[in-house]
Design brief:
alpha/beta; Spore Coat Polysaccharide Biosynthesis Protein SpsA, Chain A
Length: about 350
């Protein structure tokens, strides 16, 4: 614990729990065994059908710090995003930290991040992570910030996010220590079941006035078969999954109007279209595997550009990238989908 910090504000760690019985103990122990003393753990029971919650209740009862665990039970399964919303709604801390229930964090994670948050009065502190393969335990390439950085000022954080189309900050919502008042005062919520992190990023980053980036590895992201990541291992894919992804894209498009005219709007729009085109590629790649038919209209509608033609002609960056996707989105659906298919095949996304 940092001895120079007189007050240790409460930190709420939100952990959605759904069918993770092989992982939840390690996850919870990593939260319970933090060097930082003032923590509440909000375990959100999202109505799984395994024994995950038995482990949660056992640790709550028998671990020396078990009283830190607070269980909130959903009446029905609502998905990862809504479980995080439940954590937000029930959090009592000054700060909130999202931890996925199959991952685990390093012992000094919260102490390190709170120290930076208190020192700089941040909206968010973002640290680095490493990827861990399950079950081998092999460490894979990490997402690490190259250097310690304090970011301050209107649009300073947004300008880093939108410096180009690469991921200059993590797209995830986990491993970030948010000021809870920042989350609530800006009415930030998780809105969809799939790609909820990218939509949340698209919402929150433009509100940030001060943030810290840490090169320290604080989070272990576990890759496992059967996790929430992807389509590859199933013969049939419920059609609502891709429709929910399209719904998230539509929300991202609508919410882009809020930042129209700001200096990073050109890159923001390009990032939105890159995200949406990836969803189109997913739909095209797995079209025959969905449980219901996906029409050209549904796919083509996802190509609608968030900006107007007048906006795009004034863009300083990625003007032609945005212009291409604007024109593509205005074409008849049968043509835009066919062109998308050709591009996706040429770029090896099919």
């Amino acid at each position: 614990m940092n001895q120079n910090r007189i007050v240790n504000p409460l930190v709420s760690i939100g952990i959605p729990v759904y069918n993770v019985e092989s992982f939840i103990e390690r996850c919870l122990l990593s939260a319970l065994n933090q060097t930082y003393p003032n923590i509440e753990i909000i375990a959100v029971d999202d109505c799984g059908n395994d024994n995950s919650m038995d482990t949660v209740y056992d640790l709550q009862k028998n671990h020396p710090k078990g009283c830190q665990i607070k269980v909130i039970k959903h009446e029905v399964n609502k998905g990862l995003g809504e479980a995080r919303n439940t954590a937000i709604d029930n959090a009592l801390g000054k700060y909130i930290y999202f931890l996925d229930s199959d991952d685990f964090i390093e012992p000094e994670t919260i102490d390190l991040m709170v120290n930076e948050a208190e020192k700089h009065h941040t909206d968010a502190v973002l640290a680095s992570n490493q990827t861990v393969d399950y079950p081998s335990g092999e460490i894979r390439p990490s997402f690490a910030y190259k250097q310690y950085q304090v970011i301050e000022g209107d649009d300073a954080f947004a300008n880093i996010v939108c410096a180009n189309l690469r991921w200059n900050i993590t797209i995830t919502s986990w491993n970030i220590l948010f000021n809870l008042n920042f989350i609530k005062s800006n009415h930030l919520r998780f809105s969809v079941r799939f790609c909820e992190d990218s939509l949340f990023l698209s919402d929150y980053y433009s509100f940030v006035k001060k943030a810290v980036l840490l090169p320290n590895i604080t989070y272990n992201y576990v890759i496992r078969e059967g996790s929430l990541m992807g389509y590859q291992i199933r013969d049939k894919i419920p059609v609502w999954e891709i429709r929910e992804r399209f719904r998230g894209d539509a929300l991202m498009t609508e919410r882009s109007k809020r930042i129209r005219g700001r200096g990073f709007y050109d890159v923001h729009c390009a990032r939105v279209m890159k995200q949406k085109f990836r969803a189109v590629c997913v739909a095209l790649k797995h079209r025959k595997r969905f449980t219901e038919k996906i029409t050209n209209k549904e796919i083509g509608s996802d190509l609608k550009h968030p900006a107007t033609l007048f906006d795009i002609l004034r863009f300083k960056r990625y003007k032609y990238f945005n212009l291409f996707f604007f024109i593509l989105g205005e074409m008849p659906y049968s043509i835009s989908v066919r062109i998308s298919y050709i591009i996706a095949k040429f770029t090896h996304q099919l």
